[in-house]
Amino acid sequence: MTTPVARHPLTQLQLLRELQPTAEQNLERHLSISKEWNPHDYIPWDEGRNFAAMGGTDWDPSQSRLSETAKAAMITNLLTEDNLPSYHRELAENFTLDSAWGTWVGRWTAEENRHGIVLRDYLVVTRAVDPVALEQARMQHMTVGIDSPLEGANLLHSLAYVTFQELATRVSHRNTGRACGDPVADRILARIAADENLHMIFYRNLCGAALDIAPDQTAKAIGDVVMNFQMPGLTQPNFRRNAVLMAKHGIYDLRQHLDDVISPVLRKWNFFDRTDFGPEGEQVRDRMATFLEDLDAQATKFEASRDRALARDAARAAG
C-alpha cells in the first residue's frame, strides 16, 4: 500500500486555466438545456390595484392569504435573491470575467435576477406582505451585503459554497411553494427551483473537476465550507426568527441540510471513497466524517424537539 504524498498547491491562475475546459463544456451544456421564461407570465396581474399614493388603498394584514410561516419564507427567499450584487461581486473576484468564466458569471446573474423580479411582483400584486416593510428590509440587507465566515476565501471555496448554497436554495424554494397553499406561488417557486438546480449542477461539476485536479486543496475548501456553512440571508432583518419558523414547519431544517444538500453532493464527488487524497485531504475527510456524525445527532435532537412543540401547539388549538 502506497503512502499518500503531499502535492504543491496550485495558484488561483493555474486552477482557472486547468478548469477552463470544464467551465466551457458546462456553460455550453447549461445554455443548451436551460429554458427561457418571463417573470410577467407568472403574475396574476388582475389581482393588482393601486396603493394610497396613486389614489388606492394601502396594505393591511387582512389582505394577505399566506400563513405567517409562508410569509416568513417568501420574504427570506426574496431578500436572499435581492442581494444579487454582492454574490456577483464575489464570483467576479474569485473567478474571472474573461472567457467562459465571465460569460457564466453574467448569465448566472441575469438568470438569478429574474427570481427577485417574479417574487416581488407576486408579493406586491397579491398583497401577500407589507410592501413598505419589504422595501425597508431590502435596503437594509443590500446595504450590509453578505457576511462570509471564511477568511481568505478563494476560487475553490466559492465553487464549494455555491454548490451547496444553490442546492439549499432549491430545497427552500420548493418547500416554500408548497407551504404557500397557492398554486400561483407554487408554480413560481417550482420554476425558480428548476433554475437553481441547473446552477447547482454547473458549480458541482466544476468543483468535482477541481477535486480531480487538486484533491487536497479542494478537499480543504469543501471542508471549510461545510463545517462553517451559513445561508446567504444571515444578515437579513429578522433572519433568525424567520429561519426558526421555516425549520419548525419543514421548509428548511438541519435534517434537510444534511440529507438533501450536503450528503448527495459529497456522494456525487465520491468524497469518502476517493483514493487520491494526500495527508491533508485525509485529515479533512476524517474531520468531515466526525462533523457529519455530530450534525446528524443535532438533526435528530431537533426533530424530536420540534415534534413535541408541534404536538403541544395542536393540543392547544384543539382545546
Report on this model:
The protein has one domain (12-318): Orthogonal Bundle (Ribonucleotide Reductase, subunit A). Residues 1-6 have low confidence and may be disordered. The protein has 11 helices and no strands. The longest helix is centred in the last third of the chain and has 40 residues, at 279-318. α4 (99-125) packs antiparallel against α7 (183-213), α6 (155-180) runs antiparallel to α7 and α8 (215-227) packs parallel to α11. The protein is an all-alpha fold. The termini are far apart. It is globular, with a radius of gyration of 21 Å. Fe cation 2 binds at residues 112, 166, 196, 199. Its cofactor is Fe cation; Fe(2+). This is Acyl-[acyl-carrier-protein] desaturase. Pfam families: FA_desaturase_2. Homodimer.
